[in-house]
From TrEMBL:
Taxonomic classification: Bacteria, Bacillati, Bacillota, Clostridia, Eubacteriales
GO terms for MF: uracil phosphoribosyltransferase activity
Pfam families (alphabetical): UPRTase (PF14681)
Function: Catalyzes the conversion of uracil and 5-phospho-alpha-D-ribose 1-diphosphate (PRPP) to UMP and diphosphate.
Residues of the Phosphoribosyltransferase domain: 7-208
Keyword rRNA-binding attributed: no
Organism: Fusibacter bizertensis
SUPFAM superfamilies (UniProt xref): PRTase-like
Ways its activity is controlled: Allosterically activated by GTP.
Biochemical pathway: Pyrimidine metabolism; UMP biosynthesis via salvage pathway; UMP from uracil: step 1/1
Record protein name field: Uracil phosphoribosyltransferase
Length: 209
């Protein structure tokens, strides 16, 4: 069974409260999502491996640490996942970014991929799938499935807000994928919105309705 990490750093919780507030407009919403994403990126990368390297400071030679492990890939699920990309890239500028777009088929209710552009070497990268809201878990599970079908072997899922239903769905489908969430909310409502949540993350990011 995968692990679920709730990121209860005070800065994350403070900024998330501002993000949730319905009076927060799109500009501030985007900035806050970027800032929280950067803080999440910091937490999610705690387990990156390091190696010893020799460098020379202005004073003397020394042995110090630098990242040594596999390269990273950030995979936003369109469209709301786009809001998290810049925050991750601020901390991980060498990461490549792949995009996955999904819609729900109105008849089968299954997620259908309409766009997918990924780094060619995803099998050699640690992938971080980003989507602000883990609601039913349908899109996240499908996106992870598409990545695995294309050879991905190391995947984490990072969300701003999740709920027990979505977490259970992803854990069921992908017991190898750890989930990182700023805050786990109470439940889904009948319209598949997270309660209390923040409303529609895509609409709030991009000012649509
Ligand atoms: N997607 C959103 O943007 N918000 C929700 O509450 C659920 C899914």
């Amino acid at each position: 069974m995968s692990k679920v990490f709730e990121m209860n750093h005070p800065l994350i919780q403070h900024k998330l409260s501002l993000i949730r507030d319905k009076n927060t407009g799109s500009k501030e919403f985007r900035e806050l999502v970027k800032e929280v994403s950067m803080l999440l990126a910091f937490e999610v990368t705690r387990d990156l491996s390091l190696e010893d390297v020799e460098i020379e400071t202005p004073i003397c030679k020394m042995t110090t640490k630098m990242l040594s492990g596999r390269k990273l890939g950030i995979i936003p699920i369109l469209r709301a996942g786009l809001g998290m990309v810049d925050g991750f890239l601020n901390l991980l500028p060498a990461a490549k970014v792949g995009h996955i777009g999904l819609y729900r088929d109105p008849e089968t209710l299954k997620p259908v991929e309409y766009y997918c552009k990924l780094p060619t070497d995803i099998n050699e990268r640690d992938l971080i799938v980003v989507d602000p809201m883990l609601a039913t878990g349908g899109s996240a599970s499908a996106a992870i499935e598409f990545l695995k079908d294309r050879g991905a072997t190391s995947i984490k899922l990072v969300c701003l807000i999740g709920c027990p239903e979505g977490i259970a769905a992803v854990q069921d489908a992908h017991p190898d994928v750890n989930i990182y969430i700023a805050k786990i909310d109470e439940k889904l409502n009948d319209h598949a919105y997270i309660v209390p949540g923040l409303g529609d993350a895509g609409d709030r990011l991009f000012g649509t309705k």
